Amino acid sequence: MYNKIDLREVPAERLKEISLDLVNIDAQAPEFEPNRQFYFMAKARDYVKRKSAELGRPMTFFTQTFGCQMNARDSEKLLGILEKIGYQETTDEHADFVLYNTCTVRENANLRVYGRLGYLNTMKKKNPHMMIALCGCMMQEPEVVEKIKKSYRFVDIIFGTHNIFKLAELLCMRFEEKKMVVDIWKDTDRIVEDLPTERKYSFKSGVNIMFGCNNFCSYCIVPYVRGRERSRKPEDIIAEIKRLVADGVVEVMLLGQNVNSYGKNLEQPVTFAELLRQVNEIPGLERIRFMTSHPKDLSDDLIEAMRDCDKVCRHLHLPLQSGSSQILKVMNRRYTKEQYLELVEKIRKAVPDIALTTDIIVGFPGETEEDFEETMDVVRRVRYDSAFTFIYSKRTGTPAAKMENQVPEDVVKARFDRLLAEVQKISSEVCGRDVHTVQKVLVEELDDHVEGYVTGRMSNNTVVHFPGNADLIGKIVDVYLEESKGFYYMGKQA
């Protein structure tokens, strides 16, 4: 008979080695993290084990992620916790535990979640064991939480962006209290990592380097739901990446709402450029990506680091939002059209083969035809590899939502169509520039359209399809680009 382990006495670095079945869940819960969460994982695991035996089958879970890559990375952590607890993943909502990690950047994302909840209500009536949890940015809006508490009372757990790490603890609360658990933090200065993570890909991974945003663009809800900027210590980031490399990862994506602000709030400030140089030195790592970069503080030092670091991918996502200096001022973006174009020129001079992508909003309050033409002018001059184009979405709680001069819907739609046509025309021309050359491609998956083919990405993020099998997945191979299809290539191994 094994002695049960009291997690209050275990060093944090040893937690992942310990079988949760050996944890003493009758002992007091540790007050410090991440030990506290491993204790609650063990406690929840005991419940799931007993419930599975009672049902005569494994308990299952399903997660769905809405929104950005920060959310996707959060979902990998949530999935890792659920698997550690003993749930088995299933492919749809016919599960014992359903979790939606929500986004609230645009109103449509909220509406989709409400639509899914209506569907889940019917399913829950047929499965009394089913539990439903909601987390993420949408849950940081007080009016949303009130609406769910009033109109969707069958939801079991509601938590936000700041306490993703607490999933196991919240589950235990729900198991014990048999009523809705709501745990929303308005803000936090805490960063809890080193918890189980189930990566979508074995060979590449996102790595959070910071959380939150201090920019307060007038249209954006993110600073209100993600909180103020908090940077992780560089040594913690480096240690995490080294562990990932040891586990087979060859490409990392450094994640933050604005990575260019990294390190400003650390006791010993470190710039993002310095962090990039440190990450570039990690043996075994092949590729480094990062997003998102705000143009207002993309430094010369960072441009030099991108030029000098051989592992940094030749791709930069540099959101424009509008080409009109007047609209940019009202957006609180803190740069002008001229400054943005000058920045692009600097980047291209330092890294001539870089692929530039961007975000553009059409129909911001007060946008005139002249303002829109300024945006079109930037698109034609920069010639982006691709652009994410959005119709302005009014977000309650942001300054822009109260602005007068909202642009008529028909005008916005017509402008959006014109912009999209221009972006696609330019992209199809730009993306073909490497045809008939040999490029290094990281193979990501089997091609889901053509049997006997695989799909991968070049350093500049362009997709390539070529003949191959599953053995190539996760490897970087030389590929001859035979034909450009506008937004992707067809090739063959060189």
Distance from first to last alpha carbon: 59 Å
| Cα shape | globular
**Strand segment tally:** 19
Helix-strand makeup class: alpha/beta
Neighbour order of strands in the largest sheet: 2-1-3-4-5-6
Low-confidence stretches: none
Radius of gyration: 24 Å
Largest sheet: 6 strands, parallel
Q: Classify the helix fraction into a percent range.
A: 25-40%
Mean pLDDT: 94
- What's the number of helices? 13
Tell me the β content.
15-25%
Write the layout of secondary structure elements.
Elements: H1 35-55, E1 60-65, H2 69-85, E2 88-89, E3 97-102, H3 107-126, E4 131-136, H4 142-151, E5 157-159, H5 167-177, E6 181-183, E7 204-208, E8 210-211, H6 222-226, E9 230-231, H7 234-246, E10 251-255, H8 272-280, E11 287-291, H9 300-308, E12 315-317, H10 325-330, H11 337-350, E13 355-362, H12 369-382, E14 386-391, H13 409-430, E15 438-446, E16 453-458, E17 463-467, E18 476-484, E19 488-493
Parallel strand pairs: 1-2, 1-3, 3-4, 4-5, 5-6, 7-10, 10-11, 12-13, 13-14, 17-19
Antiparallel strand pairs: 8-9, 15-16, 15-18, 16-17, 18-19
Explain this structure to me?
The chain is of the alpha/beta class. It has helices at about 35-55, 70-85, 105-125, 140-150, 165-175, 220-225, 235-245, 270-280, 300-310, 325-330, 335-350, 370-380, 410-430; strands at about 60-65, 90, 95-100, 130-135, 155-160, 180-185, 205-210, 210, 230, 250-255, 285-290, 315, 355-360, 385-390, 440-445, 455-460, 465, 475-485, 490-494. It contains 13 helices and 19 strands. The model has no long low-confidence stretch (mean pLDDT about 95).
